[in-house]
Fold this protein.
Amino acid sequence: MSTWQFMRLGGTGHSRLAALAAGFVVAVASVAVSTPVAAQVANTKHNLGTSPGGGVNQFSGTAEICVFCHTPHGADTSAAVPLWNRALPTPSAFTTYDSLGTSSLDGKTAPVGSVSIACLSCHDGVTSMSAVLNAPGSGTTGDAAWAAGGWTGANQSGGALAAGLITNLGTDLRNDHPIGIQYGGGGLTGSAPAAATTDPDFKATVSAVIGATRVWWVDTTAPGSVVGTRQKTDMLLYSRPAGSYTGQTELEPFVECASCHDPHTTNSTFLRVSNAGSAVCLACHNK
Ligand code: HEC
Ligand code: HEC
Ligand code: HEC
Ligand code: HEC
């Protein structure tokens, strides 16, 4: 919750900040808390319907926003992604960064999964972005028809991200920052949570048990950020549990697409924090 408050504060200028300084914290916060997610994502390239604010690609079939990614019912459960309304690609379809063979990479690589495979269900450029599991309205059988046609915009072809765009990552991820990569590199000793914090090449993590499971993140110094509290402006790490794939023996934090990106934010290129001064990179790397 506090993240939305701070993001709103950051964007509302001197009067709000002055009010905050004057002690009207509760009043400002209550305005911010009632702000729906749509106030953010509606004004981004991730608004693919006909409602105002989106990017170049638009689908005529709906004025909804969330439906391209989330559904309240009938979601895909093959990966740990929130109420996901899209069929997920096959993990083995991807070539991962580690297969490039740089001599310095020492973290272990998990199969493409977690939140990354949710992003890649569009950013692999394969399937129409309106090919959702549960289209708006009653019933199930109309969904295939909903997916056909209706797309305009120069950066798509038949609703899939067009070839040749950088936003179309494709299935060869060797030229992309590693994802599904263990945080903290190799050479670690000890068990979680300490194991995530001992590689001197990386900033220390913070961890807490949230819900039933331990989660990790790397604190940033973004405006309004509270040290030791997990917020959307921190670099979030995603836990891969023991037994989730062969060789995974304990719960550990991994870097995924959404470690650096928040798919709902209006920040440039959906980054969790501005990358001025390479702040995104330096949040994790000690360089
Ligand atoms: C382009 C795809 C996309 C769209 C559109 C989208 N989301 Fe999300 N959403 C995601 C992904 C991916 C995650 C998981 C990211 C993460 O772990 O931070 C997520 C996570 C969430 C979460 C749980 C984590 C959090 O940030 O609170 C909520 C709640 C949520 N979305 C609500 C919404 C609502 C409501 C809308 C529409 C107004 C929406 N989303 C639109 C992709 C999307
Ligand atoms: C959320 C934390 C995080 C952020 C943010 C981050 N990285 Fe990384 N990066 C990692 C991890 C973990 C690895 C894997 C390192 C390993 O296992 O040796 C990695 C790997 C790399 C590698 C490959 C290293 C090799 O040995 O092949 C490069 C280069 C790199 N990052 C650069 C960047 C740059 C540039 C940015 C900013 C755009 C950035 N990173 C942001 C965590 C992060
Ligand atoms: C429903 C399809 C869909 C999903 C799922 C999706 N995206 Fe996107 N994303 C798009 C489209 C469409 C664009 C705009 C592409 C263009 O115009 O070149 C885009 C653009 C972006 C951009 C570039 C923004 C810019 O300003 O140029 C980033 C970064 C991005 N997405 C990250 C993500 C991440 C990270 C996830 C998962 C957390 C994700 N996306 C999930 C459809 C999607
Ligand atoms: C370690 C941090 C990090 C990770 C992990 C990461 N990205 Fe990015 N991504 C960035 C940064 C920083 C930029 C902005 C680069 C720029 O300004 O050209 C970016 C840019 C993008 C863009 C826009 C590219 C362009 O130039 O138009 C897309 C799309 C994108 N990311 C999608 C993804 C997806 C999908 C994943 C997971 C498969 C992912 N990113 C993982 C840091 C990351």
